[in-house]
Write a structure and sequence with these properties.
- The protein folds into two domains: 51 residues; 146 residues, no CATH class.
- Helix content is 25%, strand content 37%.
- It is built from three helices and eleven strands; from the N terminus they run ααβββββββαββββ.
- Helix 1 runs antiparallel to helix 2.
């Protein structure tokens, strides 16, 4: 079990390693013809072991949902632009997983969103999240809605995207619930230090601790 979540990641790694070793051991037989006959079946077993390792690696990038926990902070600062009499804003986004991103802000608000994976059967307490994007609104132009500069705050995938894979299998919805949720539009205020918190249901709330 990782220090960051309630997923028994070691179990997936262990299962994947054992399956791979078992497949190799069964193929290494004196009777090579018999080993060849078993190759397809045990090759599938080895593939299943490799898949377990990839799933474990990707799930290790998620964090457990802990009600009331701060999952990210956003600190906004301003800097005068010489000779213009105007200011530009910058946001420093720091996530619970330890990543930090500096983002230029030209608009008047920002949004943060996450992905969630939750086991909905009673005997499985699994509930995980992973930060996904920080959206910085661009300055609005005449008669045009503002667009967004999108910054990825997620760790790189480990060869397989578990969240996306589960989303493509509708029959698992009775066991695993996947979702995505975001903050409301949060205003850009100089000196603000925003804390993004998650509740037991995976919803996000934001408070300004810098004013």
């Amino acid at each position: 079990m990782t220090a960051h979540g309630n997923l028994p990641e070691w179990l997936l790694y262990g299962l994947g390693t054992l399956l791979s070793l078992a497949a190799l051991r069964m193929l290494w037989q004196p009777d090579r013809w018999r080993a060849l006959a078993w190759a397809v079946g045990w090759g599938s077993l080895a593939a299943a072991g490799a898949l377990c390792l990839l799933v474990a690696a990707d799930c290790g990038r998620y964090r457990a949902v802990v009600s009331g926990a701060v999952i990210a902070t956003v600190a906004v600062t301003s800097q005068a632009i010489a000779g213009t009499g105007t200011e530009k804003y910058r946001a420093r986004v720091a996530t619970r997983s330890g990543t930090t991103h500096d983002v230029e802000l030209s608009g008047n608000h920002w949004i943060f969103d996450i992905q969630t994976i939750r086991c909905v059967v009673s005997w499985c307490p699994l509930h995980l999240y992973r930060g996904r994007h920080f959206y910085a609104a661009r300055a609005q132009q005449a008669d045009r809605l503002p667009g967004y500069d999108t910054v990825s705050v997620r760790d790189p995938d480990a060869g397989i995207d578990v969240w996306r894979s589960l989303k493509r299998i509708p029959r698992l919805r009775g066991i695993v619930q996947i979702g995505e949720t975001s903050t409301a539009q949060i205003p850009v205020l100089d000196g603000a230090i925003y804390e993004i918190r998650i509740d037991a249901e995976g919803h996000l709330s934001v408070s300004d601790t810098g004013h």
